[in-house]
Write a structure and sequence with these properties.
The chain is mainly α and about 70 residues long. The protein has one domain.
Length: about 70
Amino acid sequence: MKQFEEQPHQDLHQFLQSMKEIDERLPECPDVEGKWEQMAKAYIPDGIREFFDERSGKAERNRMGYHMTKM
């Protein structure tokens, strides 16, 4: 699982560097990293609700303002 997480992270880092959007060295934030699981759990119920609403075409509008229509 750790390798799965590292590869997209490295790919994104390289891409953003090539676009001159970030520096080579990433900042560290151990106080947030240590609480990541706790913070993510707070968003899971909302994410699940939105996923099912959008799949069924019931969502009229999601958080970014896009309207859903059922095809």
